[in-house]
Amino acid sequence: MTLRIVLFLTIVTMFIGCAGSKPQVGSVSEQPVKTSGDKNKWVTDDRTFWTEDDRMCFRVMVDNESDLSFAQRGLDGQAYTVLINAVKVRAGLEYDEAVKGSKYSTSSIGNARQSVVNAIGDVKFSDLIKTREYWEQFQKDLGDKGVSYIYNLYGLYSISEKEFSRAKDQAWDNASQDVERQADKDAKQLLDEAKARFLNKDK
């Protein structure tokens, strides 16, 4: 009798174990089922760096994409967004530094800053190059419908220092023209002062 109970419990345990290991519908594999190659250091290290030939390099990524070709197109757009944000961050820091202790009104300071933010959003970049690409394919369980695949895609992009500086210059010029059209002389003067600091910071 004891032996039968032991055998019964063993079978039940094995059944539960097998049932528990079955992927749940909608679950995604923890590890990629396929990759485009070796996962080099640049994939996991998202720090911006400069090369010896004065090019700024940075990593971007898109994830959970069901179509690899669509993800590749989206990667270029993401790189452009990263560049815009990089200019915004640097412009914001330089602008805030330039207006410390400013004699200008709060209204003019705010107006000038908003013009800078708007202008940077319109900056156009050329010389943006994707130098490397890496992707991982993961399997998603669809139950009775089988499986589907999703992708995480990484790209390493670079842009020349000359082009990055040109984009900064264009952003400040556009902002200056914007406040000039608004006839805000204080904001125009403030932008001219901030621009001088911003563009000469790295020289």
SSE arrangement:
Layout: H1 2-21, E1 34-35, H2 41-44, E2 49-50, E3 55-65, H3 68-98, H4 106-121, E4 129-141, E5 147-160, H5 161-181, H6 185-200
Helix pairs in contact: 3-4, 3-6, 4-5, 4-6, 5-6
Write down the secondary-structure element order.
HEHEEHHEEHH
Would you identify the regions where 5 or more consecutive residues have pLDDT less than 50?
none
Quote the distance from N terminus to C terminus.
89 Å
Neighbour order of strands in the largest sheet: 1-4-5-3-2
Radius of gyration: 27 Å
Shape: elongated
What proportion of the residues form beta strands (DSSP E)? 15-25%
Looking at this protein, list some descriptive labels.
203 residues, alpha+beta, five-stranded antiparallel beta sheet, 6 helices, elongated
Task: Give structural notes.
The mean pLDDT is 79. A 5-stranded antiparallel sheet has the order 1-4-5-3-2. The radius of gyration is 27 Å and the shape is elongated. It is 53% helix and 21% strand. α3 (68-98) runs antiparallel to α4 (106-121). The protein has helices at residues 2-21, 41-44, 68-98, 106-121, 161-181, 185-200, and strands at 34-35, 49-50, 55-65, 129-141, 147-160. The chain has one domain. The protein is of the alpha+beta class and 203 residues long. A hairpin with a 4-residue loop joins β2 (49-50) and β3.
